[in-house]
Amino acid sequence: MRPTIDWDGEVITIIDQTALPGEYRALTLHTVDALIEAIQRLAVRGAPALGVAGVLGVALSARAHPNDPDAVRAEAERLATARPTAANLSWGVQHALDHFADSADAVSTLAHQVLSADERNNRLLCERAAEVIIEQCGSRPLRALTICNSGALAAVHWGTGLGAIRALAEQGVIEEVLSCETRPLLQGARLTVWELAQLGIPHRLCVDSAGPAAISRGLVDCVVVGADRITANGDVANKIGTYALACAAAQADIPFVVVAPDETIDPTLPDGTRIPIEDRPAEEVRSVGGLLTTLPKTPVFNPAFDITPISLITAVVTTGTIFTGRAVTRDGSPTKSLATAHLDNA
Ligand code: MRU
Question: pTM to 2 decimals?
Fold first, then answer.
């Protein structure tokens, strides 16, 4: 697969995620406005990819306005707020602005570095998450459930939550993946299923509202997801529907594991209560494939994300740390304590 997002020193190229699974096509973005538009309509999406987009967008702006640092900062500010929930986007913009203080070339060099580090870092992260999952579940063939898309399409390569499932599949311990559809934009149905099919990992598409039921019926050994923002105490913002899955996993006493890079951590927020939650347009809910499914002016509740408290989560595995929450029992006794055993590998 091509990188989900790329920079050749002049333009940004993305895989247009609105076209999948029907068409795998690239889009070239020449301006920060075009990048913001692509982010807002989810042509490029997923927290790690948004972090990279933040860096690449500032590199693009610095190239477009070589003698106008104020113009670069103004574009950077608009880019950082294009979507509010994923911590990675504003992190990426700020990281690039810090380098821009040195020179425009320094930002372009940073963009290349961020792109080339993505796969290595994510693979390492996912191998560690896979170890945690096996430690918590045992290495029997596992039935994993996930929501949204946290695979290669949500990063540059490889991914996070789905990347951990991929690492488990490489070890031969995945029996099946249930991918929740992820209404209303169907990232699970369109993107995760597409990635799983490309990788040859056995899977079934799961009706969103059936995810908790699948867990309660004993059809799932572990829930594995990505994250958009992780607060200082380990609370997690992720795709709407994640919280219900975490409640069901807690009730069923199965592991619920979150996998994300360190850039998703927002140390300025003590807990999840103040994470900004993006509200998406009503049109996304009122119709499917252009066909109205309700009355045309029906008021709509369409938050893109929800908050899952650390108390419902078994482990939040990031590049540099592990937040631990709810312990699970296996064969009648608590599983091995997660402590911070993996920190040394960071
Ligand atoms: O609205 P999206 O598609 O950007 O939402 C993405 C998610 O919720 C992902 O689970 C999250 O960003 C983690 S991706 C590795």
Answer: 0.95
Residues 253 and 287 in one domain: yes
* CB contact set of 168 (below 8 Å; sequence gap of 6+): 130, 133, 134, 142, 144, 174
Residue whose CA is closest, atom 15 of ligand 1? 150
Regarding the beta carbon of 308 and ligand 1, being less than 6 Å apart is answered: no
150 lines ligand 1 (CB under 6 A): yes
pLDDT tens by residue, 49-100? 999 999 999 999 999 999 899 999 999 999 999 999 999 999 999 999 999 9
pLDDT attached to residue 334: 72
Please answer whether residues 163 and 125 qualify as being in contact, where contact means their C-beta atoms are separated by less than 8 angstroms: yes
In the chain, how many domains are there?
Answer: 2
Q: How many residues does the chain have?
A: 346
**235 flagged as catalytic:** no
> Could you tell me if the CB of 227 is within 6 A of ligand 1?
yes
The better pLDDT of the pair 289, 313 is held by 313
Q: CATH number, domain at 331?
A: 3.40.50.10470
Expressed in angstroms and rounded, the spacing between residue 279 Cα and the centre of ligand 1 is: 14
Question: Which residue in the block uniquely carries the two structure tokens 């390569």?
Answer: 157
